[in-house]
Write a structure and sequence with these properties.
Strand order of the largest sheet: 2-1-3-4
Helix content: 40-55%
Radius of gyration: 20 Å
Mean pLDDT: 97
Number of helices: 11
Number of strands: 8
Low-confidence stretches: none
Largest sheet: 4 strands, parallel
Strand content: 15-25%
Distance between the termini: 19 Å
Length: 319
């Protein structure tokens, strides 16, 4: 009889191996070549990517990574490893970490789990809100890797957890700690990573899942509508993305009488360039230069105990 052995695959986006131009260029090439991320026809996009985007963007992005790099490495990788290790201590099954782009690769993580005899694979993409550009890319990556396998495990794929009670409880605890430390702000801003508006128009329910998280957290915190706001960051290219944009919001809030803001990015399960540099530094500067008085960034959940407890609940529900 075939023995049932579950195992967990944690997946996040990925990160360069080093804060250098060559390493960032390798990472961006893999990331921006995925049609799930940029769906422009390949004959049009690839010459732009290799001729314009990579040569000009890589050196600039490398400097940004250098500004947030930790002693142990990239923040995203450091926190993701801590999440993996903390989860492994709580569940009686193998846990591996793979990245959609960069290292450790999805293939290395899957190969490790399969070598340990895993017959039931629980896939947990660390994206709270589904998007075709993130969660679906994980699905594609796993399917491509399994094309080389003669035998496949049963796959339990966790699509997202935007309004899971344990996730909302973890966010609530994080916000309350910040309020206790810095005082309650005039406005709590929830800044989610943006995607092209066209993706939503074509069926991606990401925007709705962001609204679900925002509504659940607002209810949990007991905030009025004028005390919380949802925005979208990190737009790329010229076509319209989900709005309102975080950077424009930060520049406009002070003239509306909002002088103290706290910002969190609930769509990021681990702190990374987009939170530590784009939000904590760039958008703080936008807000303060526009006349704001106080700006605090609320860290991602990272390896907080409440976050790990959520992962335990999600994994155990698929055992």
């Amino acid at each position: 009889m075939r023995q049932d052995k579950p195992g967990v695959l944690l997946v996040n986006l990925g990160t360069p191996d080093a804060p250098t131009t060559p390493a960032v260029k390798r990472y961006l090439q893999q990331f921006l070549s995925d049609p799930r991320v940029v769906d422009t026809p390949r004959p049009i996009w690839l010459p732009i990517l290799h001729g314009i985007v990579l040569p000009f963007r890589s050196p600039r992005v490398a400097k940004l990574y250098a500004s947030v790099w930790m002693e142990e490495g990239s923040p995203l990788l450091v926190f993701s490893k801590r999440q993996r290790d903390a989860l492994a201590e709580r569940v009686d099954m193998p846990v591996a970490l793979g990245m959609s782009y960069g290292n450790p690769s999805l293939k290395s993580a899957l190969d490790s789990l399969m070598a340990q005899g895993v017959t039931r694979l629980i896939v947990l993409p660390l994206y709270p809100q589904f998007s075709c550009s993130t969660v679906a890319a994980v699905w594609d990556g796993i399917a491509d890797i399994f094309k080389g396998y003669r035998s496949l495990p049963d796959v339990q794929f966790i699509r997202d957890y935007a309004d899971h009670p344990a996730y909302i409880a973890a966010l609530k605890a994080s916000v309350e700690r910040s309020f206790a430390q810095h005082g309650q702000p005039d406005l709590l801003v929830l800044s989610y990573h943006g995607i092209p508006q066209r993706f939503v128009d074509e069926g991606d329910d990401y925007a709705q899942r962001c609204k679900d998280t925002t509504a659940a957290l607002q209810q949990a915190l007991g905030l009025r509508d004028d005390q919380i706001k949802m925005t979208f960051q990190s737009r790329f290219g010229r076509e319209p993305w989900l709005q309102p944009y975080t950077d424009e919001t930060m520049q406009n809030l002070p003239q509306k009488g909002v002088k103290h803001v706290q910002v969190m990015s609930p769509g990021f399960s681990a702190d990374c360039l987009e939170t530590l540099e784009e939000i904590s530094e760039q958008n703080c500067e936008f807000f303060m230069h526009a006349g704001g008085d106080k700006f605090e960034y609320i860290p991602a959940l990272n390896d907080d105990a409440e976050h790990i407890e959520m992962m335990v609940q999600l994994v155990n529900s698929r055992r």
